[in-house]
Amino acid sequence: MSPGTSHLVEILLPTETGKGQPIGKDWFDGFLKELTDRFGGATSFLRAPGQGLWRSGGGTEKDSIAVVEVMVEEIDSSYWQTLRERLERELSQDEVVIRAQEIRRL
Fold it and tell me: pLDDT averaged over the chain?
């Protein structure tokens, strides 16, 4: 990747499926390999999952998340939307957040 402007794509993944089943290290390793094969590299933060809280209906829900990051030169919105929809199905989630921000490599 050349110096200059690129994008950091962050994928926020639950550590359990929507059905309460833990998502194993093998699944995360396979997902990281898939992204590495496509983009030439990916980074995962699995050992210290983040904790998320949000309001839902009349209560508060809690989730543990892992973050996977990929740096890309251009955003292919169609690819990321398809990936998000696949992850939501695979992991039984109402929503998987995939977000991107423009970065300048120094």
Answer: 88
CB-based burial, 22-49: b 16+ in 10 Å, e otherwise:
ebeeeebeebbeebeeeeeebebebeee
> What's at 90, amino acid-wise?
E
Q: Which domain holds residue 44?
A: 4-105
As a whole number of angstroms, the distance between CA 75 and CA 18 comes to 28
Region of residue 25 (phi > 0: left; psi between -120 and 50: alpha; otherwise: beta): alpha
What's the domain count of the chain?
Answer: 1
Decide if 83 contacts 31 (C-beta within 8 A).
no
58 within 8 A of 40, measured Cβ to Cβ? no
What's the CATH code of the domain at 81? 3.30.70.120
Write out pLDDT tens, residues 13-34.
Answer: 999 998 989 999 999 999 999 9
